[in-house]
């Protein structure tokens, strides 16, 4: 599978730089992980909106989900114009408000998931890990029909259970909101050392640091993650293509 980073900033977008969004593709089939600020606009650099039918949301903070509305109206209007006749499916933690918002807009459908859910969509199987975060949030493990594995942490503090969940992944896209020495447990996020340690313990082949902070020297994040044992460490950037 191939993963294209649509956006990777934590919290809020930069100028022309979206927050969380990752387009995962194989054999002409696509799924989008998260729909943060600017993702609906920028994902069109890589795919026609009418060819996207599955959006997996990790949680409902704005930097991961605010563009739900853009995708809903996009599908509704394209349906009215006769440009598409397939449903746009949203998958997210159970939330009556989000479910109602999605389902009332023509040609959009909401599916809730929990920690024991598995979805088989096209060539992908998607499993979930309940994170330690301020709101209900899940990491995702995507396995393709060739057995290649991509794990995306979304937002979370460090937990040992993440090591098991990411075990043996070819690629781990991890949030890396904090620099080494900052208090991840208090902030509900991980620092670069924790992320590097997670990747090392899980034996992942390549580590992509994402959900990056708007301050400091980002190269220090990669250096800290490498020192902690992370292999193949790179900083995510918009447009980056990752072969999994
Ligand atoms: Zn976030």
From TrEMBL:
SUPFAM superfamilies: Metallo-hydrolase/oxidoreductase. It holds the Pfam family Lactamase_B_2. InterPro entries: Metallo-B-lactamas (IPR001279), RibonucZ/Hydroxyglut_hydro (IPR036866). It comes from the Bacteria. GO terms for molecular function: 3'-tRNA processing endoribonuclease activity. Residues 31-211 form the Metallo-beta-lactamase domain. This is MBL fold metallo-hydrolase. Keywords: Zinc. Coiled coil: none annotated.
């Amino acid at each position: 599978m191939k993963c294209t980073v649509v956006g990777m900033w934590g919290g809020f977008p930069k100028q022309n730089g979206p927050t969380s969004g990752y387009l995962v593709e194989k054999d002409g089939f696509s799924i989008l992980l998260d729909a943060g600020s600017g993702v609906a606009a920028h994902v069109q650099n890589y795919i026609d909106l009418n060819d996207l039918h599955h959006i997996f949301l990790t949680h409902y903070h704005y930097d991961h989900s605010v563009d739900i509305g853009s995708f809903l109206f996009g599908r509704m209007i394209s349906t009215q114009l006769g440009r598409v006749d397939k449903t746009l499916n949203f998958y997210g933690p159970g939330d009556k408000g989000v479910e109602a918002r999605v389902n009332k807009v023509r040609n959009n459908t909401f599916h809730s998931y929990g920690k024991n859910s598995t979805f088989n969509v096209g060539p992908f199987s998607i499993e979930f890990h309940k994170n330690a975060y301020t709101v209900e949030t899940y990491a995702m493990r995507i396995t393709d029909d060739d057995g290649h594995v991509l794990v995306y942490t979304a937002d979370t503090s460090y937990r040992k259970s993440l090591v098991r969940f990411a075990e043996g992944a070819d690629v781990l896209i991890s949030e890396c909101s904090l620099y080494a020495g900052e208090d991840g447990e208090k902030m509900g996020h991980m620092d670069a050392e924790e992320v590097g340690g997670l990747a090392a313990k899980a034996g992942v082949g390549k580590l992509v640091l994402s959900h990056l902070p708007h301050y400091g020297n980002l190269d220090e994040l990669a250096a800290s993650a490498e020192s902690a044992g992370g292999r193949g460490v790179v900083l995510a950037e918009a447009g980056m293509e990752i072969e999994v």
